[in-house]
Amino acid sequence: MKTILIANQKGGCGKTNTAITVATALAVKGYTVALADADTQKSTLHWLKQRSSRVAHILSLDWRNEKSIGDTPKHVDYLVIDAPGAVSGDLAEQLISESHAIITPLQPSFFDLHSTKSFLKQLQDIKRIRKGKVDILLLANRVKPQSVNSQAFQDFFKKVEHEPVAWISERAVYGQLAAQGLSIFDHTQKRYIDIQKQWQPLLDAIIDDKTQWF
Predict the structure, then answer these.
(1) What is the CATH number of the domain that holds 190?
(2) What pTM did the predictor assign?
(3) Is residue 62 part of a domain?
(4) What is the rounded distance in angstroms from the CA atom of residue 31 to the CA atom of residue 105?
(5) Highest mean pLDDT among 7-11, 71-75, 181-185
(6) Domain-located, residue 212
(7) CobQ/CobB/MinD/ParA nucleotide binding domain location, by residue (predicted)?
(8) What confidence category does residue 57 fall into, taking pLDDT thresholds of 50, 70 and 90?
């Protein structure tokens, strides 16, 4: 089983949307996927309750209680964890000890850049991170076309010496689908496939599968 943690201390950066999108992509590809909600807001759990039995199945895990962390069925191929906003100290150690990769979404704003820089610095205090046992993948999220070449955004990535693995455009369709327990990977129409392709570099970074996605 490979475990993917979606985490950033900055609220509103798109953690839950990233978690449900990645989980759905893997489930639609045919893998057995579990989605663990470690956030007290329960956004991921609410999304899973809305999800129809007619679409790719995703196992629901409630990890809001720290005693539940690590409790996962043995037959799962991929575990995606939606971390709480305040992930630090023992909780961070516990979640990261379960993880093979950390996806950190951030938006092109001053507050996201400042908060994410602090978060990345905190991660370096964790032994498993320092030893290079966990991949850290930045995801530029909710990006408007004019923001891609923003000097502040480019300067930030130079300072942290960490380029984003993918750039995800801001789209209203994410929220519209989430209200139905769905994500963009539940649809095969061209307009959804065009959006799905933005996620391909991230999927390639977390999964070794050379078969065609789209």
Answers:
(1) 3.40.50.300
(2) 0.90
(3) yes
(4) 23
(5) 181-185
(6) no
(7) 4-152
(8) very high
Inside any domain, residue 26: yes
Q: Residue 8 burial by CB count (10 A; 0-12/13-18/19+): exposed, middle or buried?
A: buried
Question: Alpha carbon of 125 to those of 119, 121, 138, 145, 189: distances in Å?
Answer: 10, 7, 18, 35, 44
* DSSP codes, 28-87: HTT--EEEEE-STT-HHHHHHHH--TTS---EEEE--SGGGTT---TT-SEEEEE--SS-
| Structural domain total, the chain | 1
**What share of the chain in percent tops pLDDT 70?**
92
Looking up tokens 């993880």 gives 99
The token pair that represents 75 in the structure block: 């037959």
The mean pLDDT of 3-14, rounded to a whole number, is 85
Residue 188 lies in a domain: yes
Which amino acid would we find at residue 150?
A: S
